[in-house]
Design a protein that fits this description.
Blueprint: H1 12-35, E1 39-47, E2 52-58, E3 76-81, E4 89-96, H2 101-108, E5 111-118, E6 121-125, H3 128-135, E7 139-140, E8 146-152
Parallel strand pairs: 1-8
Antiparallel strand pairs: 1-4, 2-3, 2-5, 5-6, 7-8
């Protein structure tokens, strides 16, 4: 008795289905990798039980062409954070990427001061170096993509 070797002949339509599934899978993976590029943010949150005021002051008038802050030609922007949600949080975005040390140094070089006022007191940072030192340890998340300023009691 001879054993016959079976030869499987695959249908070309099956090959196309397999190839299409692979291409769709690769396309979805590539989209997710590109779409998941994080945005740099500074999140300001009020958990103090009272109202909080945060003032960012630029060294010179803001310009949409020059400054990364985009504050509509103003030198100061003030955020009033109330006690109740959703008015107790503000998120500022600074484009894609993470908060690397050089990026943070560049951003803070545009600032003259940062002032945080709450019922428990005032924090006044009067130079880019002080602001940098304040923000650097507050980097959070995967890839250090956000800075969190959390005001508590």
């Amino acid at each position: 008795m001879k054993h016959r070797k079976r030869i499987r002949i695959q249908d070309p339509k099956e090959d196309n289905k397999i190839m299409n599934k692979k291409l769709i899978g690769i396309s979805i993976l590539a989209y997710l990798l590109v779409a998941c590029t994080p945005y740099r943010r500074i999140d300001m949150k009020n958990r103090s039980g009272g109202n909080v005021q945060i003032n960012w002051k630029l060294k010179e008038s803001d310009s949409l062409i020059q400054s990364p802050f985009f504050m509509y030609n103003s030198e100061t922007v003030t955020f009033e954070l109330q006690n109740a949600k959703p008015y107790n949080e503000v998120k500022m975005s600074f484009g894609q990427g993470s908060w690397k040390r050089d990026t943070l140094a560049y951003i803070t070089s545009w600032l003259e001061s940062l002032e945080i006022k709450s019922d428990s007191g005032t924090i006044m940072l009067k130079s880019p170096e002080e602001i940098y030192s304040f923000l650097l340890p507050r980097r959070k998340g995967i890839g250090k993509r956000k800075i969190e300023i959390l005001v508590t009691k």
